[in-house]
């Protein structure tokens, strides 16, 4: 990218010691269309661009959460071709509802709700502000007393009693009644920061001057209560909400820098097949509570980000209005992860063959018993390039390299279909059979804005048996299946027509920009 060569990213920029040269301008490592909007957010940086910068400096492009952002300048406008009359009074209201449920309008709402909970008198004092129901909070000069954790016999995960009263401290004017009024969403640990912040109290002297800090963390820190580690769908609830929180916290040009600390709010060792994703957010090793337990930790800047299971939250509990799709926030997340992890992009081949990736399961249940027969039928098509993959054998980065360069992605119901987030805009996702969970990946595909196909003829799918749930009873998730070959072929052909007709599908020329 010529822009990033001209204007080094945060990880490559070096101090300029030549007094005859203007100082080097350090910019975050972002896709070009994201960087344009970043610079428009921070106009002082934009004015420092050299005259030969390869960027549209006259652009008024914005994300959509900014107060002065017009609908035309937004990163993306939702598409709402579906009927609205049973839901809202007008088509405009339908678009707006989706925008505030699942797009940058949600960020705008969080920003508008930010309310001081503990107010500083002086610059060296502490501060705390939160959105409604303590879904997002950020603070300065706060102390977390974790000394008691070394005495706990149980490991911590999803616990609501990690802290006791007085174990979160700040030197500021606490509005306790206002803080306690936001405790409605503490039904579980992953809905709110209420279980932790109900223990907030005031320290009589400035935190960093109190002598109470066993460890001072200077790097901005994001404390995360995560949903899962080995299930892709649930762990990407974590990553997506962390990304959304960068926008809520975007009050300083360093908002997208990677010199930040991640602290996972549990004592289990962190390991995940998807742990490489954290490299998109931080250059530092990820901490857990085990790394800091037994100490009083003082954070100069700390963020308590949006959580994975908030009531009417993002990704997992998003209440999507009927008839709408294409969230710009979800598309931005996809582009951000692919860019930061340096996932290569290859345009469709010159022969115009569609690239089909079939995700093969090696689990006990939801195997496709006639998989070879289905794929043999597709291999008869000259217009298709077929690859059969088992992602559990590949690194996550290698998985993304396949997904990003796929036009039709096929797989049984399961967390692996979360890869649809990283398909090209024109791609189709074919959930071979939804196992009687019709909305999970259909809704995720709507949010990302890729075409969704699933099995339509129940009489042409043949389960091995009724399915045997571990806790008793029949369940469609716990058996294996055979599928009618001709119907399978028809649905793939249907998905292919959608791909080729998409406005973003590359035409005959193959000179495509990296950030498609």
UniProtKB/TrEMBL annotation:
Keywords: Endoplasmic reticulum, Glycoprotein, Glycosyltransferase, Signal, Transferase
Annotated GO CC locations: endoplasmic reticulum lumen
Pfam families reported in the protein's UniProt record: Glyco_transf_61
Polar residues bias (residue ranges): 9-21
GO molecular function: protein O-acetylglucosaminyltransferase activity
Chain residue ranges for the region called Disordered: 7-26
Domain of life the protein comes from: Eukaryota
EC number: 2.4.1.255
Glycosyltransferase 61 catalytic domain ranges (all copies): 319-429
Reaction catalysis annotation: L-seryl-[protein] + UDP-N-acetyl-alpha-D-glucosamine = 3-O-(N-acetyl-beta-D-glucosaminyl)-L-seryl-[protein] + UDP + H(+); L-threonyl-[protein] + UDP-N-acetyl-alpha-D-glucosamine = 3-O-(N-acetyl-beta-D-glucosaminyl)-L-threonyl-[protein] + UDP + H(+)
Name listed for the protein in its UniProt record: EGF domain-specific O-linked N-acetylglucosamine transferase
